[in-house]
Design brief:
heterodimer; A: alpha/beta; 2 domains; four-stranded parallel sheet; two-stranded antiparallel ribbon; 6 strands; elongated; B: alpha/beta; TIM Barrel; eight-stranded parallel barrel; 14% strand
């Protein structure tokens, strides 16, 4: 899941300055779960924009705006409403905004900010996070990831900044390396702290070009083939 | 005598700290260098201390060389990736810089540009490893250098910790730093010779010279501030009271620092005086400590 949150309303009206009419798109996927772009938020946005003097030519909430084929089929039958609007306000994550902008020949404004989940690809109660670094170090660190548990993502051990087990950045955040130490100690693995770990390979940490350029989802592939 | 020769020959070394200012006015740095050059063996030049943007430690180290004061070029991993760090090390060598202190670096969020991108491509341990590779004539990607440096590399450690995990992690990391090539150690400020003595017993097996860090107290308020905000600094209550009661706070602060140095001297191989704005008082501290 991708987490998004609403932008301040003033920022959105700033985007719409000079425009008279707008079509609002919401998403029944992550944006609905995030409470930033589901049917409820789309209806609220419609009221607020009309209150601000804009004409809303239509609204539509589609299942998964990240999927261009669904965007196109979802807007079938609403072509006139979209064409009558100066622009589309897209209430979803950055992927959805980009997909709509690519699929529909209309100015698209983002209504949300997409939140960095620190390596999370879903919402759950645990604190474990994976940054998809391509060079897993968990064997050396007691099964606690130093990239996501340590604010500085240090691989060689703690910095000197912690106070009473908390990170200097925030008293609410545990020092990741103290968690790692306590885990290693409990598992009688403190010798792991002596292992020299090479600097991270950032070519593996960054998404490969082919991952950035294409989607791995079957639906996307079928759309490509159908063109 | 260079810092390296002094420590290798077993003589007690004195280092201090020069902090570049924000801007291009180097008057104070030059004054401090002129005043300190015959009093200390070398001076650390801080690298954007506390993540506050200032004149660089590379250029400032060059100024110290010109003024006849041996610099210890502090290098943090916060602002540069491995390409820039290695390149700056080569630049430092051709400028005549011989000592480097490898640090991870404070978080940008704590400084005056909190929106800056933190880098940490390397950290203090892997930076020491990189310095060792350069000294051997190679970069860390394995490419051969034409002409190689011979840096005297150092590292830091926190002596006093508030949790067992923090204490053990500091020692474990110090071992990693020495294994990666640290030839001298400067410590975070200490105020208790007892706890410093215990620390020294634990690290004796590493056989690396340790310079005990000291910060002269300017007031009781400063001591309380450090206790609250600076990780690893623990000023005992009796010293705070002594400062609060003192009529001449400057003289008392200098005397407390000098007395501490006298107690630390038999336990270690040098002292690192972090005067934090009191650079001009360093000669008085050294004199009062009988160094």
């Amino acid at each position: 899941m991708i987490l998004s949150e609403p932008k301040p309303f003033e920022e959105i009206t700033g985007y719409l300055e000079g425009e008279k009419s707008v079509f609002i798109l919401g998403c029944n996927g992550c944006a609905q779960s995030s409470g930033s772009g589901g049917p409820v938020q789309v209806a609220e946005m419609k009221g607020k924009l009309e209150g601000a003097g804009k004409k809303v030519t239509g609204t539509k909430v589609i299942d998964f705006l990240c999927e261009k084929a669904l965007v196109k089929s979802g807007l079938r039958g609403r072509v006139d409403e979209v064409a009558a609007a100066d622009s589309i306000l897209v209430m979803t994550c950055g992927i959805g905004v980009q997909a709509v902008a690519a699929a529909v020949n209309r100015v698209c404004h983002p209504a949300c900010n997409t939140v960095n989940l620190g390596g999370s690809r879903g919402e759950w109660r645990g604190s474990e996070r994976c940054q998809e670094c391509g060079q897993c170090l968990l064997d050396y660190t007691g099964g606690i990831c130093p990239l996501t548990a340590c604010t500085k993502s240090l691989v060689s051990g703690a910095c000197g900044g912690a106070s009473n087990g908390k990170c200097e950045l925030s008293p609410d955040k545990d020092c990741g390396w103290e968690l790692i130490f306590n885990r290693l100690k409990a598992k009688n693995q403190l010798a792991r702290l002596k292992v020299f770990i090479n600097p991270l390979d950032h070519s593996k940490l960054m998404a490969r070009p082919e991952m950035l350029a294409t989607s791995r989802y079957a639906l996307e592939q079928s759309d490509q083939e159908g063109r | 005598m260079s810092l390296k020769s002094k420590l290798e020959s077993g003589k007690f070394a004195i280092t201090c700290e020069v902090g570049p200012l924000k801007g291009t006015d180097i008057t104070e740095v030059e004054e401090a260098a002129a005043l300190l050059k015959d009093k200390v063996d070398a001076a650390n030049v801080t690298d954007q201390q506390s993540s506050v943007m200032r004149l660089g430690s590379l250029a400032t180290s060059g100024i110290l060389i010109n003024k006849g004061l041996e610099p210890i070029y502090q290098m943090t991993c916060r602002d540069r990736n491995r390409i820039a760090l290695q390149s700056d090390l080569l630049s430092a060598w051709v400028m005549g810089i011989r000592n480097v202190l490898a640090l991870t670096g404070d978080l940008p969020a704590l400084g005056d540009h909190p929106a800056a991108k933190p880098v940490y491509d390397l950290d203090s341990v892997t930076l020491l490893h990189a310095i060792g590779r350069l000294n051997a004539g190679f970069d860390i990607a394995g490419n051969e250098l034409k002409g190689k440096p011979a840096f005297f590399a150092g590292a830091v450690v926190k002596v006093d910790s508030d949790t067992e995990a923090s204490m053990e992690l500091q020692i474990a990391k110090l071992e990693r730093k020495v294994a990666a090539g640290a030839k001298f150690i400067q410590t975070q400020a200490v105020y208790s010779a007892d706890s410093f003595g215990k620390f020294m017993k634990r690290v004796a097996k590493l056989k690396v010279p340790v310079l005990a860090g000291v910060i002269p107290l300017k007031s009781a308020g400063m001591a309380r501030f450090m206790n609250k905000n600076v990780s690893g600094v623990l000023v005992p209550e009796e010293l705070i009271e002594k400062m609060a009661d003192a009529e001449d706070k400057t003289a008392t602060g200098i005397q407390i620092c000098a007395d501490l140095i006298k107690k630390l001297k038999p336990l270690c191989q040098g002292v690192h005086i972090m005067a934090i704005g009191w650079e001009k008082k360093v000669p008085s501290i050294i004199q009062a400590a009988g160094l």
